[in-house]
Structures are given as C-alpha cells and as structure tokens.
C-alpha cells in the first residue's frame, strides 16, 4: 500500500510538468488592446498575436472606429533553454467615431489547415479627456493651432436652392504638418451633390478667430437640398502627421522634431430647408428653381406629308437644371410625334448650375392640312423675387402642303397628350395573305437503326477506359507534392491579385491584397516558409536562381510600396502601375 501511495504522489507531482509541456506546444491566437477605456480624442492600439505563422489573416470590421494606421506586421524569433519561440503580430491603430460601448469582434487566421479565432473585446469610449497645456504635446498642438472648418454659404435655403460647402484646414504659423490624408469623406444625405475639382492644394494666408493663420481648401461641394426640414452635413475627418518640437538640437543648432499621428474632424453643420410656398404655385410646376429662359422652336413649318421636322423645347439659365422635367408637346393626333432625345450642356461651380437642357422631338405629319401646335408653358420659382414665374411659347402652325386630305385650318383638331399615336387607316392597311404553303411531310424513321441509338449504346463502354486514365492521372497529380504546392501558391496569388484589382482606389485593401499575392507566389516558387519572406532573403534566393536583376528590382519595389502605402498617400495611377507590374511577374 505504501508503494502505491508513493507512486500516486509522484504522478501528482509530475502532472503539472506534462501539462506545461503540452501548453508550450499549443497554438495560440489572441487579441490584445492598449486600453479598454479611452476618451473620444484618444487612440486605441489593437494587436492580434500568434505563436505560429499562418495564412489568410482576416481582421474584424472595427465598427465604431476609424482605422488610422495599420495593419503593421512584426515577427520575432527567440531561443530559451534550447527551444525556439516564435511570435507574429498584426497591429492596428484606431480612432473612435463617437462615445459609447463597442466590441472588437473576432479575427481569424488559418494555421496548419485549422481556422483559429480571437475572443471579442469590449471597449468603452468616454467624452474627450483634458489635454495638458504643454506646447510640445501633439494633442495640445492639435487643439490650439490646427483647425478643420466647414463653411456653408447659407443655412436656411429653399428646397432645390443651391448652397456651397467648403472644407478648410487652418494651421497656425508656429505649428507644422508634414502630411495628411482623408480617412472619412462626408456623406450628404438628403442632398443632390456635385464636387468641384480643385487643381492642386495651395496654401493661402487668412485669419481664424482674429489671428493670422495659413489655410488650404480641401473640398468644395455644391448641394441642392431634396427634402425640407433639418438636414445634417456630415463632417470631414483627416489623419494628420504633426511635427512635434523637442528640447534636443542637431549639430547645427536646429531643433529636432518628432512626428505624431492625430485625427481631426470638422465641425458638423445643420441646414434648415424651407419648402417652396404654396401660394401662387402653377399647376404645371415641376420643381424648377432659379432664373431661366424658355424657348420652343421647329426646324420648318411648311412640308409635305410623311416628311419629318425637328421641334425643340429648351430651358437655359441658372438653377437646378438637372433636377426637373421639361414640359411636353400637345400636338394634334394627325401629327406623329416620336419620343424626344434629351440633351444637357451644364457646368457646375460654386454659384450652382449654369447652361441649358432641351428635349428634341421628331414630328412626321400624315395628312395634308394646317395643324396648330398649342403654346407650351413652363413655370419656375424665382429665388430673387421669391415668387413663381410662368413663361409661354407662341402657337406654331404646321402647314402640310401635299398628302391625303384629313383636315384644314378651320377644323377643331383633337390633340394627343398621352404620347400614344392613333391608328391611321389607308389603302395599304391590309397586308397580303399567302394562300399556298411550303409544308412537306415528315417520314417516320426506325430509332433502332439511327446514329443516336448506337451512340447511346457504345458511349458508356468507351467512357470506361477514359475514366481509368483520368483516375491514374489524378493519383499522379496528388502524389506530386511540389507541383501541388506550386499550383496552390499560384491559385492563392491569382485570388489575391484579383482582390487587389477589385480594390483599386481603396489604398489599404489594395496593398494588403497585393502583398498577400506576392507572398503566396514567392512562397510557392522559392519553397520557403512565410516567416522567411524578408526582402533580403527573397533577393538572396532570386540571385541564387539566376533571376534577372531587373525582375528582382521590380519585386523589391512592389514589396516596398506595400509597406510604405500604410503610412503615405498613394495615387490611383501609382496603384494601377503596381498592379500591372505584379500581374506581369506572375
């Protein structure tokens, strides 16, 4: 009994050692945050850490936050008591959009064919924290010396009256910004909007709160409110790289500066949209607001039956030219009127829309006579006088000189306003009816002597050797480990290259997909693990395989762009060039 007791005690003593050894070999994938409670003006760091390398990492959506940095990737190797320790981390920097409680959802990754997930983390965002009054603190510099302003031309417009929104970034002379990028574009819900192109950002001198500032105009937009009541103009958000001075100086006595990333958001603005007055509103009013001229014209008034003439209804001037319908012709039913061709010649600037719109009709008279086209009326709301105005054209008489008789000028002709043309009877109204046919008899055939019968009988027998050959080829293919690895790498590279093409214009998503495509392609071609994919290792292996130097240089450039794109702005043209270079290498 004593021996059994000693053995039991020994097992209890060594059990934790076995458990610890098993834990050391276990795969871990977890999420870590810099803090679980932060102010609205602070930033959050999220790390997704694993102890073994994997593929196809997918981050959560980060609802309630704006990604202002990342994903940054870091890999570390260490040795302890003869055992190799590995760690790989994907890092993100987030800025909260609003106060409240939010959840960092699960991230996923594939390790040795198994999908691992992190646990959700709850984050609480409180009101902005107090910024210390340190002139060298980036938060203090952002609060006191940098301002993103939303300027609105009018806050109580009429429905469909144009207003302008201009976003300006003011920077005090003592502050410095080395770079900025737009991270959240404003959405103009309830408005018809048109952006005004800005050719190059130019710094200008101005004042803010009575002090001298430099400013740059970032965006100009013309808005036409489409509904009444209180409408919100969403703010613009920027990620700024601020130059923060330090107490250190270089060899020449110049002060050394550090860089810090901060998020700035423009002030939100509200617009109170007034409805157009009901008093004096014409029945034919279709929503035109502005200052317009109206004209109705025809290419000719004298012609023969079945000849065509062109008629045009045109509105020109300043106002919401794209946002209302032109009046229709009310032509006599004896005139065949075709659907109009709509034309627009409009330019948009800070004062609204200017130009003209027109509907061009083709009209074909069917009978001889004189056919009057009644006057066409057009109404609009004049912003200057705040009243409705109605314009009318002159009556137009179409004189058809030759053709079958139908009516003359003294007849009261019905007009056609529905757009449908009446059926006109003439001597050729009945088509010729054939009395003889080209029918031929069908002779029944014996199915058992047809080609279809013998094909159906022999096809299964011929398919047996083909199936055996296919099975043998498939087994050979499955046994080809190197070939399967290369084919898998090619498929993954093509998959991520396709995702990069779809993400053109979205810098973050584009370069993440492009980097994955390059890594999978090189991993398969060079027969190395993902952890070994450093630029130096890639260059060394490519040189050892006698790859041309210009090809190696292209790969280095693409990988460098994938890294730099996380910190610097990239243009659409640069992304297209990187995509074309990557596609040419695979």
UniProtKB/TrEMBL annotation:
Alphabetical list of InterPro entries matching this protein: BatD
Pfam family, one: BatD
Residue intervals passing through the bilayer: 451-470
Region forming the signal peptide: 1-21
Keywords, in A-Z order: Membrane, Signal, Transmembrane, Transmembrane helix
Identification of the protein by name: BatD protein
């Amino acid at each position: 009994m004593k021996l059994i007791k000693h053995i039991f005690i020994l097992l209890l003593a060594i059990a934790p050692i076995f458990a610890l050894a098993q834990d050391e070999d276990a795969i871990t994938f977890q999420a870590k945050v810099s803090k679980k409670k932060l102010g609205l003006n602070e930033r959050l760091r999220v790390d997704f850490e694993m102890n073994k390398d994997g593929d196809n990492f997918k981050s959560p959506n980060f609802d309630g936050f704006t990604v202002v940095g990342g994903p940054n990737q870091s890999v570390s190797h260490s040795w302890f008591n003869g055992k190799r320790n590995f760690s790989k981390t994907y890092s993100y920097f987030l800025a909260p959009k609003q106060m409240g409680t939010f959840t960092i959802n699960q991230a996923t990754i594939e390790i040795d064919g198994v999908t691992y997930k992190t646990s959700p983390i709850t984050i609480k965002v409180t009101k902005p924290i107090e910024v210390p009054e340190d002139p060298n603190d980036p938060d203090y510099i952002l609060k006191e010396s940098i301002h993103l302003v939303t300027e609105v031309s009018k806050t109580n417009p009429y429905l469909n009256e144009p207003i302008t929104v201009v976003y300006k970034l003011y920077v005090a002379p003592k502050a410095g910004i080395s770079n900025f990028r737009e991270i959240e574009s404003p959405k103009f819900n309830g408005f018809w909007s048109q952006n005004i192109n800005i050719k190059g950002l130019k710094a200008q001198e101005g004042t803010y709160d009575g002090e001298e500032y430099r400013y740059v105009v970032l965006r100009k937009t013309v808005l036409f409110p489409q509904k009444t009541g209180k409408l919100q103009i969403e703010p613009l958000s920027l990620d700024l790289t601020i130059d923060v001075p330090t107490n250190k100086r270089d060899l020449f006595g110049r002060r050394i500066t550090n860089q810090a990333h901060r998020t700035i958001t423009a002030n939100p603005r509200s617009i109170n949209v007034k409805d157009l007055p009901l008093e004096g509103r014409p029945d034919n009013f279709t929503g035109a607001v502005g200052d317009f001229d109206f004209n109705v014209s025809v290419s000719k008034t004298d012609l023969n039956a079945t000849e065509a003439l062109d008629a045009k209804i045109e509105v020109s001037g300043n106002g919401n030219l794209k946002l209302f319908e032109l009046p229709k012709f009310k032509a006599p039913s004896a005139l065949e009127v075709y659907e109009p061709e709509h034309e627009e010649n409009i330019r948009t600037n800070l004062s609204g829309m200017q130009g003209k719109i027109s509907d061009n009709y083709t009209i074909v008279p069917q009978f001889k006579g004189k056919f009057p086209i009644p006057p066409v009326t057009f109404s609009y709301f004049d912003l200057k006088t705040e009243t409705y105005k109605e314009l009318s054209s002159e009556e137009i008489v179409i004189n058809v000189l030759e053709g079958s008789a139908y009516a003359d000028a003294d007849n009261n002709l019905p007009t056609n306003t529905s757009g449908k043309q009446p059926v006109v009877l003439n001597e050729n109204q009945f088509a010729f009816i054939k009395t003889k046919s080209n029918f031929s008899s069908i002779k029944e055939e014996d199915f058992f002597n047809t080609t279809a019968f013998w094909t159906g009988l022999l096809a299964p027998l011929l398919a047996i050797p083909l199936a055996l050959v296919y099975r043998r080829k498939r087994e050979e293919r499955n046994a080809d480990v190197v070939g399967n690895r290369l084919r898998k790498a090619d498929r993954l590279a093509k998959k991520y290259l396709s995702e990069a093409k779809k993400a053109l214009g979205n810098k973050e998503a584009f370069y993440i997909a492009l980097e994955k495509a390059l890594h999978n392609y090189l991993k398969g071609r060079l027969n190395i693990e993902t952890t070994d994919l450093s630029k130096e290792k890639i260059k060394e292996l490519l040189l050892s395989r006698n790859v041309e130097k210009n090809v190696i240089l292209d790969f280095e450039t693409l990988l460098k762009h994938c890294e730099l794109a996380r910190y610097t702005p990239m243009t659409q043209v640069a992304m297209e060039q990187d995509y074309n270079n990557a596609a040419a290498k695979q």
